[in-house]
Write a structure and sequence with these properties.
The protein has 7 helices and 11 strands. The protein is an alpha+beta fold and about 250 residues long. It has 2 domains: about 70 residues, Multidrug-efflux Transporter Regulator, Chain: A, Domain 2 (Orthogonal Bundle); about 140 residues, Regulatory factor, effector binding domain (Multidrug-efflux Transporter 1 Regulator Bmrr, Chain A), CATH 3.20.80.10. It has an 8-stranded antiparallel sheet with strand order 4-9-11-10-6-7-5-8. The longest helix has about 30 residues. The model has no long low-confidence stretch (mean pLDDT about 85).
Length: about 250
């Protein structure tokens, strides 16, 4: 058996860290002597180092405690989740680095919006005459409808224009909603993985906004991929947010 001082020396952890792990239910001494002193088994060294390594990797104390209590199958499922979360964090850091490296003080206000978790969108069909913010009335109506049903709407409405038929615009209005709710009648459900958007706030007469975004994206080392959205902004009737999902160029 090893004293706490000897065990700290063997494991590379401090005695205070070992006491902390004990209080949190992560690593208990193999036994206590009659005088109350802690005694550790040499076989616990690897476990102590493993716990310390998980902490260094950013895993929470609660998650580590849960991992240690589980069987091999459940542990593998937790490891898969941690790997996915780490990959998302790494991507976020890489994106931030690439974005900052590409910016200069004279660049237009192109921003990044990262939906770091899987998202749920519900879309309703809509038609409207050609005019500024044509689907605004539909956005307001459908949002109220969702709220009456008790659906948590996370952001203001999104718009997709799909076609023009006989002077009418045909499209969809959608909302990012809290997961777990049933899809409302007459709506379609879209599930998105974690998604990175390049965004640019545009005026109604800004006909070349998308071209500017594509040019700037290439300068910054990103390329368009996936859905393109327009988000109507609360408090203004003459501006909208253009959102283009993007990925990083692999070798920039």
């Amino acid at each position: 058996m090893l004293t706490i001082s000897q065990f700290a020396d063997r494991s590379g952890l401090s005695a205070s860290a070992l006491r902390f792990y004990e209080r949190k239910g992560l690593l208990k001494p193999a036994r206590r002597w009659d005088n109350g002193y802690r005694a550790y088994a040499a076989s616990q060294v690897a476990e102590a180092r493993f716990i310390s390594s998980l902490r260094a990797a950013g895993i929470s104390l609660a998650a580590i405690r849960e991992f240690l209590r589980r069987d091999a199958r459940a542990r593998e499922a937790l490891l898969t989740t941690w790997r996915q979360e780490m990959a998302a964090r790494l991507l976020s850091l890489q994106v931030a680095d690439q974005y900052l490296r590409g910016l200069d003080s004279a660049r237009p206000l192109l921003h990044l919006e990262h939906w770091s978790d899987p998202s749920v969108l519900v879309w309703f069909p809509a038609t409207a005459p050609e005019r500024p913010l044509p689907f605004l009335d539909a956005v307001v109506m459908r949002k109220r409808e969702l709220e009456r049903r008790g659906t948590t709407v996370l952001t203001s409405g999104y718009v997709r224009t799909l076609d023009r038929v006989g002077g009418q615009l045909v499209g969809e209005v959608g909302f990012r909603v809290k997961a777990g709710r049933r899809t409302p009648p007459g709506a379609r459900r879209q599930e998105l993985p974690p998604t990175l958007f390049a965004t640019l706030e545009c005026g109604l007469r800004d006909d070349v906004a998308a071209h500017r975004v594509f040019r700037l994206l290439d300068d910054l080392g990103f390329f368009p991929e996936g859905p393109h959205l327009e988000r109507y902004l609360p408090g203004t009737a003459d501006r909208y947010l253009l959102m283009i999902s993007v990925r990083r160029h692999a070798a920039r």
